[in-house]
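Sample intake sheet
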Amino acid sequence: MIKGLYEAHLPVSNLQDSIEFYKKLDLEIAYQSEHVVFFWIERGKSWLGLWATDKVKTSYHPSLRHVAFQIDRKDMKNINYWLEEKGIAIKPDFEFSGEEQPLVLNNNPQAHAAIYFEDPDGNSLEFISPLRLDFEESFEKMTLEEWERTKE
C-alpha cells in the first residue's frame, strides 16, 4: 500500500532566504505562494514544504525540524567539497567535527553514511546513504574513511 514518503515540512523565518538556500541544494520549486514553497526532492515522488512562520523558534529536537535526503554512496565521497563550494558549513554532530564527516551510523542491523548541516533557520539537514542493510555487526560510530578501510 505505502509507496514512499511524499512530503515533509519545515518552518522558516524568511521564505526568500530559504528559497535561495534550498536552490543551492539543486532543488527545484514545485509550488510557491506568499507563505509556503514546495521543492521537488524527486519530481512526482517527494517534495519538501517550507512554511514562513514564527514556529521556527521551536527548539530543535531530532523528532522536530529534521529532514534527511538520500544520496548515492558514490556522491558521499565528495559531498564535503560540494557543500563547501555552495558555502554551506558542515555541522558537528554525534561527536564528529565537520572535517570528520561523513560519518557512519551504527543502526544495527543497518549501517548508513551521513553528513549534517543546517538551513538558515537552524533546521537540521542530512545527506544519508545506506552502506549495508539487514546485517548484524557491532561497531562504533566512525568516519566513512575508517569504514571503507575496514571493509577492504
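Comment: The chain has two domains: 1-55, 65-152. The mean pLDDT is 92.
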